[in-house]
Design a protein that fits this description.
Radius of gyration: 19 Å
Strand content: under 5%
CATH topology: 434 Repressor (Amino-terminal Domain)
Distance between the termini: 40 Å
CATH class: Mainly Alpha
Low-confidence stretches: none
Structural class: mainly alpha
Helix content: 55-70%
CATH architecture: Orthogonal Bundle
Number of domains: 1
Shape: elongated
Number of helices: 5
Order of helices and strands: HHHHH
Largest sheet: none
């Protein structure tokens, strides 16, 4: 009977795996952008704010707003995210946690 080879990743976390692959920071940034984009879209829907009105409140173009709301587009600045939060009567906040 063959002995099973022990899985080297057994007991490790997803963060450990992503760190080993060298993509933890990239994945964290992508997740944060998705969360922000979805939350902004949700708040717009709750407050019944159209994209045209939102873009006008932000003093930006509809295309720029579409980039902000696109969870895949990571080329959005903090200034743009802050303008969007402000346009919805919210405040953007960013924090730093200890690395795992």
């Amino acid at each position: 009977m063959k002995k099973k080879k022990k899985n080297p990743r057994e007991g490790s976390t997803l963060d450990d795996f992503l760190k080993e692959e060298g993509i933890l920071e990239e994945v964290d940034a992508a997740v944060a952008k998705r969360v922000i984009a979805r939350r902004l879209a949700q708040m717009m829907k709750e407050k019944r704010v159209t994209k045209a009105v939102m873009a006008k409140r932000m003093k930006t173009s509809r295309a720029a707003l579409d980039r902000l709301l696109d969870p895949e587009n990571q080329s959005v600045t903090l200034l743009t995210m802050n303008k969007a939060a402000s346009a919805l009567g919210k405040r953007l906040y960013i924090g730093l946690d200890d690395a795992a």
